[in-house]
C-alpha cells in the first residue's frame, strides 16, 4: 500500500501543481519520530521549517545536481548584514556541531579546552577522541556555569574555552554583562567560543549575545544554528562569527559543508519575522505547560529561556523515562552525575499536554 500526498500537502502549500509524490508508509517512517511517538528529546522546533523555507528548499532540490554557489554567499551576506559584520567574519557549517568540531580540531593541538562540567558536549567528546585534554569545571550550587572556576582553570596550557549560553541542558542564561566581562578577560589568553544555539529564544537576545565582542575584534567566536528556533535540525545549517583569522582557522578544519537545500531554507527563513514570532510564541506556551506539569508535583524546574526545561524530579530519570517511553512519550536520557534531572524539549502544544497528563499520572502512581 502507498500513500498519495499532493505536493501541496508535502510542501506546506507551495504551488498549485498537479504533481503528486508517492511515498510508501515505510519511506514516511524514515523522517521524524515514528508514528504515534511524541519525541521531546532533542530541542527541535516541530513547528518548522517555515513555509518560505519549504518553498525555497523545493526549488533548491530541483537544482541540487549542482554544488552550492551563490546561495552560500547570499546567506553569508545576510548573516553579516544582520550582525553588522563583514562576510570574512562568517563561516557556514553543516549544523553548528560541525563548526564546533572544526574549532576543536583547530585549537586542540595548541592546548587544552576548558569548559563547564554539565554542558552541550558532542564536540567535546569528539575533541577528547582526537586527543584533546578537556578540562571540565563543576557548576555552581544553583546549577549556573561557574565562570570564576573556568577563568581560574585557564593557564598557559589552555587554548580554548567553551561556554554555552543559554546552557544546554540546564536552560539557564548567563547575564550578558557578566559574560562580556568574562570574555574580555579570558580571551586575552585563549580563544573563547560562546555557543548561542538558543540565544534567539532569550528574553533579550541582543543583550545576552556576545556578537558585539566579535564586532570589536576580540578573541571570541559566536556559534549559531538553524536547528532550534528555525526548526531546521534535519537540514543541517549552522554558522560561526568571529575575527577573520579565527573564522579562517575554523573554516580550514571544516570537513562537511551545508547542502544547497539547507542553505536555501536558511536563507528564506533568516529574516522571516512572522515565523520567528509564531515559533517563539509556541515555545513560550509550551514551556508553561511543562513547567506547570512539574510544579503540580511540587517540582521546581530550573529557570529557562530556551525550548527545553530541566528539572530535578527526585527520581531516577532513566527508569521514569522508560515508563514514559512504554506510553510513547520520550524525554532525554539522564545526564551522568545528574541522574534525577529530566530534560524535556518542546514538542507541539498538544504533545506537551499529553506529556503533562502522563507525567502527572506516573508521578502520582
Ligand atoms: C548548545 C548546542 N550547540 C550546538 C548544537 C548542535 O546543533 P546543530 O549541529 O544541529 O546546529 C546543539 C544541539 O542540540 C546544542 O544544544
Give a description of the structure.
The chain has two domains: about 120 residues, Aspartate Aminotransferase, domain 1 (Alpha-Beta Complex); about 200 residues, Aspartate Aminotransferase, domain 2 (3-Layer(aba) Sandwich), CATH 3.40.640. Helices cover about 40% and strands about 15% of the residues. The protein is built from 15 helices and 13 strands. It has a seven-stranded mixed sheet with strand order 4-10-9-8-7-5-6, sandwiched between helices. Helix 8 links the parallel strand 7 and strand 8. The chain starts with a strand and ends with a helix. The N terminus is likely disordered. The site of pyridoxal-5'-phosphate has 13 residues, from helix 5.
Task: Offer a concise description of the structure.
With 365 residues, the protein is α/β, with parallel strands linked by helices. It has helices spanning 7-10, 25-28, 51-62, 70-82, 96-108, 122-129, 147-153, 176-186, 205-208, 211-215, 244-253, 260-269, 273-296, 317-326, 349-364, and strands at residues 3-6, 20-23, 38-40, 90-93, 112-116, 134-137, 158-164, 191-195, 220-225, 238-241, 308-312, 329-331, 341-345.
CATH topology of the largest domain: Aspartate Aminotransferase, domain 2
Report, as a whole number of angstroms, the end-to-end distance.
41 Å
Instruction: Please summarize the sheet with the most strands.
Output: 7 strands, mixed
Q: What small molecules does the structure contain?
A: pyridoxal-5'-phosphate
State the helical fraction: 40-55%
Mean pLDDT: 94
